[in-house]
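Pasting as-is:
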Amino acid sequence: MPTELLAEQHDATLVLTLRDPATRNALSREVYARGVELMREATQNAAIRAIVLRGDGDTFCAGGNLQRILGVRGMGAEEGGRFQRESVDLLSAWVMALAQCPKPVIAAVEGFAAGAGASLALACDLVVASRDAKFVMSYARIGFSPDGGGSWQLARFLPRALALKALWLATPLEAITLQEHGLVTEVCEPGQAQQTALNLAAQLARMAPNAVASVKRLSQQALQNDLAAQLTAEREHFVANLFHPNGGEGPTAFLEKRPPRFE
């Protein structure tokens, strides 16, 4: 039975769990398609304010299923190539859905996040990882190259030599190292990644969803914009948030010295 992607709501947080103990939560095109579907539903559901992505058990995700990948080779270059391109496009669609969702997406990583599993974790807005967690871009050692945006993330956040070492030699990157370079948000004790991620999600859920969405979008735009364009984008978001209903609730609650009740 292939890996399942299970969804369970905890208060205002949607928890997505990769589950297949036999393969250490290996990925498949079915999981990718389900991930895109669940992100679409979460975006449209006002009761969900944040999303946590985790793996069942003591492993986040072992990456792609090598038996399935070998089966694709057996289909031949034309048919198999078409099939694999569709699979990678589905993974890419899930990564883009994580990025485009206006709500915070938090990875909770225990144990290993390998291959596309590492790419998937690093695609999240925030990454909580246990102290013994390791991120491994394991492609090159079996003759492949990255997918899921892993090379994009590492090239932007790590020094070039460290990124290349991780991508070429599949050198495991420890959680504390990635925290030092800004790819991991918080390091916790083993077994505490999910709860730590839920605590972060709960904090974000109490904030104004429109403002949270603006911050996410502006932080993405800042990677491409020059200063003038970013200042213009900030102005437009600020005005939109000022005249949102939450733009009245926030200042009023502050002046009245009470917690805000954001919509």
